[in-house]
Design a protein that fits this description.
Order of helices and strands: EHEEHHEHHHEHEHEHEHEHEHHEEEE
Structural class: alpha/beta
Strand content: 15-25%
CATH topology of the largest domain: Peroxisomal Thiolase, Chain A, domain 1
CATH architecture of the largest domain: 3-Layer(aba) Sandwich
Radius of gyration: 20 Å
Number of strands: 14
CATH superfamily of the largest domain: Thiolase/Chalcone synthase
Length: 395
Amino acid sequence: MSKIFITGMGSISSIGDTVNEAFQNLKNMQHGVAPIQYLNTAHKDEFVLAEVLHSNEDLAEMLNINLTDRTYTRTALLAIIAAKEAFEDAQIDLKDGFRTGIISANTGGGMDTTERYYKTEKHEQIVDFAITHSCGDSTEKIAQYLGINGYLSTISTACSSSANAIMKGARLIKNGRLDRVIVGGVDSMSKFTLNGFNTLMILDHQHCQPWDENRRGLNLGEGAAYLVLESESIAKNKKIYGELKGYANANDAYHQTASSPEGFGATLAMKQALQSANLKPEDISYINVHGTGTSNNDQSEGAAMRNVFKNVPPFSSTKAYTGHTLGAAGAIEAVISLLSINHNIIFPALNIEHPIDEFDFKPIQTVVKNIEINNVLSNSFGFGGNNTTLIFSKY
């Protein structure tokens, strides 16, 4: 079966408008978590967020889009910016005859726009743009902007959404359905999202501390990231960032919003991803953990890592840089994983004061480390126990 290579990457988040800007900030341990600037919320002085530091007007100007059409949500604008960077990075020519598709993921749809109007507009006016709440809207907007009219699909599986989009894209290529797929995800900040996570009581009022003994919860973030996956026959003469060597999804169905304490689903996802990659646990150079900073998640993921690895390799969570970007998290962290491979660098966790002392393996990485990185395992775990693991390898 065809190998799957990554030939293009694009991202926008609180740590940069491009992949290169994100790399520089990661390397310099500069995060994007700050007081709320753009979200109009009653909790403005209560929480910090990892916002993309542009208004919707700024984002539209980057794309030469006229915002008089209210159906261009913040979600769609972020998605197009990141997908456009990946598309151009891979130097895609849609006239080359290769079958091209898009698989995009998100959780909140266009709620950022819909919630601004639903109390003030008359019903007949709302109907015209209420569809912007659909998760598929941003996928269609990417396709329209880039001129792709082939295969389109949208995935929404909570925080594993864009990791699952990447996995589905690889399967479509391996099974001969497509030659090239733009895969990734997006989520923008909304009151709906902030209030929902606040209700769950898992938000940190300060800067989050994933994998710290005194962690208090997560910081929400927004952003988008996309990869261009291409079959071996297309990619062999192009710049290649790495190979998507393994992937797996497993569901422990333990709880609607919590992982099993034993990490059953995460264990299964990691083991099956290693099997699909034909790799052994000791072949993994670095783990980009899901690492949200909630008490349950970090304990459960640690238990799963202990189940899978005899000697746990270096690992870190990068969510203290970008916030938890929900449906975009898997794709943003896929870009980070590929940056690690291409630059042989581990981006450390931030804000660690007292690493979790429950586990008998080495604590989380807290300083920039330059080592030879051949295989990176990246975890993305969603509500309902929807767990996905991706493995990226050096080309």
